[in-house]
Amino acid sequence: MIKIAHRGISAQAPENTRAAFNKMLPLGVSWLETDIDISSDNQLILIHDNQVDRTSDSEGEVNHKSFSELQKIDFGGWFGTDFVGEHIVTLDWLIDFINANQLNVNFELKTAVTEDNQQYYLKRVVSALNRVNSGSDMIVSSFNLELLEKYHQLMPQVAIGVLIEGPLPDNILILAQKIDAKYIHPDVTYLTQNQVSYLVENQLAVNVWTVDDDLMAIELEKWGVNAIFTDFPET
């Protein structure tokens, strides 16, 4: 079973920062997960929340700030004094990092931009992801199925995953087939062994979030889960 570093090694460093990604290397972790958003002046950046409040010393909507404004914000001090001065990471930086270190990646499409701007956002994402070396495995996922389907139409060669928050819907197979998804990414809190068996029997690989308990990880592997997203991928 694959262990995917959730926003980098986010148990040891502030999530989605250079520090969190760099900590993967000495640990031999080959898969990472991160979130692609966009600044007000159309720079693709890595951040999970729609606001900067939780993971920085500032506040406000990500999409309402320019890249230069985001660069002035400290994204490390909230985690610990050793990380003061960590800046927001661009998608371009991460792709260079992935290529240099032969890593695999799950990109989550996460943006609060208006529907009118989605196509531009997606075109920027596709342009950037075309730079990822062919030797790297790549998955693109989202909770927003409409956004995910639009992305897949632009870049059909990359496998996509349906992110599910809360209980797995009864029509999950139909939802996945409609957009040609190869992966289901369910919430570990609600997942059952029978559901994993059902998905696997229908040729859908299951990548579960977020699993930080070793005993649960062992159980999920027995169930036939393909991968887990975890803050502790080295264990």
The number of E-state strands comes to: 10
As a percent range, the share of strand residues is 15-25%
Q: Which class do the helix and strand fractions yield?
A: alpha/beta
Oligomer kind: single chain
Q: Which radius of gyration do the C-alpha atoms yield?
A: 17 Å
Q: Count every helix, treating DSSP H or I runs of 4 or more residues as helices.
A: 9
Succession of helices and strands: EHHEEHEHEHEHEHEHEHE
Helix content: 25-40%
| Strand arrangement across the biggest beta sheet | 1-2-5-6-7-8-9-10
**Residue-averaged pLDDT, rounded?**
96
Q: Which spans of ≥5 residues are poorly predicted at pLDDT below 50? A: none
Largest sheet features: 8 strands, parallel, barrel
Tell me the overall shape: globular
Gap from first CA to last CA: 13 Å
Please, could you describe this protein's structure?
With 235 residues, the chain is of the alpha/beta class. 32% of the residues lie in helices and 19% in strands. It is built from nine helices and ten strands. The chain has helices at residues 18-22, 24-27, 67-71, 91-101, 115-129, 145-154, 172-178, 193-201, 214-223; strands at residues 2-6, 31-38, 44-46, 89-90, 104-109, 138-142, 159-163, 183-185, 205-208, 227-230. A hairpin with a 5-residue loop joins strand 2 and strand 3. It is globular, with a radius of gyration of 17 Å. 39% of the residues are buried. The model has no long low-confidence stretch (mean pLDDT 96).
